[in-house]
Amino acid sequence: MFMNGLNRYLNPIERLGQGENSYLFPLIANTALCVFSEFYAYNIAHNPLIIGVYIIFFNVAFIIYFAFRDGIIGGLISACFSIFYYFYIIYSRHYTGQQFTSAVDTIIELGFVYFLLAIIIGWLKETIDRLIGREINERIWLQTILEQLAVGVIITDNNGKIVQTNKHLESILGMKLSAGYVIGSDEPIMQTVENNISATPASSPLAQALKSNKPIAGREFDFQRKDGKHVTVQVNASVIRNKKKKVIAAASIITDITEQKELERQKDDFLSMASHELKTPITSLKMFIDLQRQQLKEKNSRKAHYFNERIQDQANRLKELTNDLLDVSSIQTNKLRFNKEEFDMDGIIHDTVEGLQGTTKKHEIVVKNTRSEKVYGDRYRIYQVLVNLISNAIKYSPSGKKIYVKSKKDNQYAVVSVQDFGIGISKEQQSKIFDRLYQVTDSHAKTFPGLGLGLYISKEIIERHNGKIWVKSTKGKGSTFYFSLPLYMSKSKT
């Protein structure tokens, strides 16, 4: 450790680009050289005139060294010490006459050479420092920019050896690339399968870009990370050329499109489900209208009245589907509006249960342990949430039984629960139950039609009332859905 530190301090090459120039060290070193020269001349060689040739050699070496180590100032310090020492020699050796004149002329000539040497080498050193510093700064700027990007970035040299990446690449791949990794030679970064073909080192877009000298765009890969997560990425790669059009590097952009692909899948599922759900009432409407027309011709008013009721049922179903779609659209565009007012939670629970009890003959909806608690919100939207939760309780408990609706006060919140004894929800599905377009899958799933929007809309409504919604369920034993709303206070209106 000490030797490494000493090497970095003394070796001028190690100091290039650091901008660290020491002016005390040239002073001490040149002073030491002069002192040692005098000591050697008088105490070892016993000849004051012996140092003339070798001192010039050492002075030149010191000027070059310190100019390259500490820039122009370091070189000038050495040059000045040399000149002053030469004048000291003339004085201490008592030069006179022609010898004195010749020595002064020589010192002037040497001084000119020394100063020129110090300035040229020092300027070169400082120029190299600036260039290296600029390169370091540009690299720092580039790395800072790369770290801000929401995509993974790989930069390689012209042989495919990785020279730079960013942290987002790590988060996408789920691992850190080892130093010296060579694209196109080492094992593939992603053990991917593209179009059912296993990836090879040569199939990397970066390797192909370097081989063909052409950009590679829009390649998609599916792969499984070491942590088990499945990821879909889009990879673009291109070579980098210098001013002479020579390939000097390559860069690749890796974008995580897993969520985008999932949204596309959900969109396709949604279109499929929406088409199916809308087709059913439309087909029924057309059928009942045709039958009603026939019965009216036959003047069978009893059957016509029955068909009219069925038309109304299907029309209401179409209305509910349309309202759900409009609500989701409003949520996505942040245009869902609320008409907030003070209302009694117990009253809206009883009104909702009374209206829904007539829709089922197999279930008894029981209001239990409710109390009059005032809340502040949109009465219709909270009614909408209750209708959705109770309707789901009816739908997902096909064998009948009771459904309990309760409310209680919990600190500054009114907490409402809807409990059924139906098919229940597995733990794996409970975390996704409030996601858009998500439906509980079960062996009886075909008996439970819908778009999977009700709980998503309910969650958005409750959260925009500063409340919470959650579920507790046991597979095969039923589910209890809860939601909480802040109790009414006069300042809530402000």
Detailed description of the structure:
The structure is a single chain. A five-stranded antiparallel beta sheet has the order 2-1-7-6-5, sandwiched between helices. A five-stranded mixed beta sheet has the order 9-11-12-14-13. It has a two-stranded antiparallel ribbon with strand order 3-4. The two termini are 68 Å apart. It is elongated. With 494 residues, it is an alpha+beta fold. It has twelve helices and 14 strands. The chain folds into four domains: 2-145; 150-256, Beta-Lactamase, CATH 3.30.450.20; 264-332, Signal transduction histidine kinase, dimerisation/phosphotransfer (DHp) domain (Helix Hairpins); 340-493, Histidine kinase-like ATPase, C-terminal domain (Heat Shock Protein 90).
Q: What is the CATH homology-level superfamily of the largest domain?
A: Histidine kinase-like ATPase, C-terminal domain
Judged by helices, strands and strand pairing, the structural class is alpha+beta
Q: What is the total number of structural domains?
A: 4
**What is the CATH architecture assignment of the largest domain?**
2-Layer Sandwich
Inertia-based shape: elongated
Q: What is the N-to-C order of secondary-structure elements (H for helix, E for strand)?
A: HHHHEEHEEHEEEHHEHEEHEEHHEE
Main sheet strand line-up: 2-1-7-6-5
| Unreliable runs | none
Distance between the termini: 68 Å
Mean pLDDT: 81
According to CATH, the fold-level topology of the largest domain is: Heat Shock Protein 90
Strand fraction:
15-25%
Largest sheet geometry? 5 strands, antiparallel
In helices, the fraction of residues equals: 40-55%
Radius of gyration: 43 Å
CATH class group of the largest domain:
Alpha Beta
* Number of extended strands: 14
